[in-house]
Amino acid sequence: MFGDYSTRGFKEYVKVAKGILEDNWTGSYTKPSPALYPHQWNWDSGFIAIGYAHYDQKKAQQEILSLFEHQWPNGMVPQIVFNPRALGNYFPEPDFWQAPDGRLTSGITMPPVHATACLHIYRKAKDKMLAKDFLKTMFPRLLASHQYFYRDRDPDHSGLVYIRHPWESGLDNSPAWDAPIGRIKLNKKKLPRYERKDLMHGVPAEQRPGDDEYDRYVYLVDLFRRLGYNEKEIYRDCPFLIQDILFNSILCRANRDLKDIGGILDEDIAQIHGWIETSSKAISQELWCSGCRKFESFDLAAGDHIHTATSASFMPLFAGAASEDQAEILYNTINSLSFCALHQGNCFTIPNYDMTKKDFDPKNYWRGPVWINVNWMISQGLKNYGYQEKADDMKQDIIQLPIRFGFHEYFDSHTGKGYGSSGFSWTAALFINLVSEYYDKDKNSLPWLKQRVFYKTKKKKILNKLSESRGNSSEDVSSRLMTSIGDLKDKFYDLNRGRIDYAAMKASSKYVRYLEIAARLQAFDPALLSTSSQKKAFWINLYNTIIVHGVVELGIVSSVREVPHFFADIAYQVGKFTFTADEIEHGILRANARPPYNPFHMFKKNDPRRKLSLQGIDPRIHFALVCGSRSCPPIRFYDADHMDEQLDSAAGNFINSSEVIILPEQNKIFLSQIFDWYKKDFGGRDNIFDYLLKYLNEDKESEYLRQNIDRIKIEYLFYDWNLNH
Ligand code: DGY
């Protein structure tokens, strides 16, 4: 396996994303989009600040400070802060809201992502002193906003706060709100006159909420202003009171982040601790519908859960409030045809609503499309619960959607087409966040790479050296070893999550048994393997196992890079010879071809192991060799009798995974770095295309490749060296 520093393909898009934020910057905050949303929005600013944190600390801080300057005396952070110089293009504006004391804000709030954003700003900050001062300013304000929620929005001290307007959920016309807003008895004659402005900016009506929904939004605003924004009276009279799963999950996560901020500042965090406990317990117990096996919002007015299946139900993963069992159920639902299963054809990451429902609408606002912020939060949650492969897959979709279809407000889950406003700020900001985190991860690649290329192994760590190795039946040991690997695989390899439970494996009797058999390789003569299939199966399996064995024995915690020369260090003794992982890969399986960027062949001229090298390179082996990292192919067990089919299937799986991203609109493809490092094995650029064409499932993508072979630009993806555990 090999490391490289060549992933720079995303740079031009980061530039575009920064340009969007620059264009939407007003001098003190960033508009969500150029025309449709001309003021400052509450949770938009949180996500926008997360993007700025990677390259402009001051703007990140300013974004949040500017919003909180308009915090109400009761602690509520308003949903919109109006820009007096931009009035007249949006509805409803201050004249309609009539917020107390003539405030230029709306009279409702939004999901509180700000503690999370502030902690992120601090963590990314180059100027830590400045960031700490910023946290000092923000801590009491954030605390006051959380106190507001638990004091005014949770009158029964349930640990769950209510929202009182669909706009507070952030998911305005989610199908989950159909029943509760449908219950509002409208008297059209009594409804204040108003004019929608959201349809004046070029976004087609089919992508926005309907007039009937707007009437109900207006009804609620009118109710609040008639009640003078008195929360007790609103609680008494409001027909829309929901303990929203998304809102409460974000608040729960924000409690955790606020606690960490308090810790950094040495503040008293006892009250925050209490919120974390009660809010996570309440989410896990009260918002879980065991019959339906999902999290659901609770409709206080109806006294029942809302059973509609939207992506909001996955948010307890972000909160860290779901139990392991609940998380597993959520993962299975996410990874189903309703919400875009892993490697499902024609599908980009999680849509906002169950795709199998009749009223699923891929174009309409919160009634079907993919939203970047919700996906960003869910992918973080999945990662925290260990569902790394799915989380990474989602992140790659989040990155590729704006690249392919533009920095839109929302996207079609089937076609990727962008809808709503273009030049959308949080799409740009979260794109910057994801790409920057990959670059950060990549930064240490170069020194690591150099060390590796010029390293001469002084002391190999021979892993299969038990003191005594009984038995000497050569044929027997090969097949037993394979059976034992198969046993380990069945028990400890989770193909669903693409990971291995290294700790449990090390403690198991199966592993002890494996060590015993591996030790017998010392008495095995690999020259006995006669056919090419037998050789391939034996050495691929051995390579894959030595890697797992190495990770376990060297106590690697998060990446094989913790051991500088991992692949050159770990070795097995097979018969008279020792073989490092590198020697198996390059010396045997790659027919003693030079490792990439290395002037020397693996086995020198008179090395007796040369006789064991395969004759010629089958590039499909690159889809079969694992390397203890997330970007390598998943582990499978190979057997000589089915070698060809198995290698074909490994190639098919890899080429149809997120390691190959085809961007017809950009005339570009992003490929795993495996294709770059081993270009020669594949026979150069044209043959790489042949491989792609041979294995791609999607007819449309194959057709595009076929017709554009000479014009397509290839760029390479980042390589994730984190451990696949
Ligand atoms: C809108 O105006 O569509 C916003 O979503 C309200 O926050």
Low-confidence stretches: 1-7, 442-457
Strand order of the largest sheet: 3-6-7
Helix/strand/pairing class, anyone? mainly alpha
Strand content: 5-15%
User: How many beta strands in the DSSP annotation?
Assistant: 17
Radius of gyration: 28 Å
Shape, per Cα inertia axes = elongated
Main beta sheet = 3 strands, antiparallel
Ligands bound, unique: (2R)-2,3-dihydroxypropanoic acid
Description:
With 725 residues, the chain is mainly alpha-helical. 46% of the residues lie in helices and 6% in strands. It contains 29 helices and 17 strands. The protein has a three-stranded antiparallel β-sheet with strand order 3-6-7. Strands 10-13-14 form a three-stranded mixed β-sheet. Strand 15 and strand 16 (668-671) form a beta hairpin. Helix 3 packs antiparallel against helix 5, helix 5 (114-124) runs antiparallel to helix 6 and helix 19 (474-492) runs antiparallel to helix 21. The longest helix has 25 residues, at 128-152. It starts with 10 loop residues before the first helix and ends in a 9-residue tail after the last strand. Mean pLDDT is 89; it is low at 1-7 and 442-457. It binds (2R)-2,3-dihydroxypropanoic acid. The site of (2R)-2,3-dihydroxypropanoic acid has 4 residues, from loops.
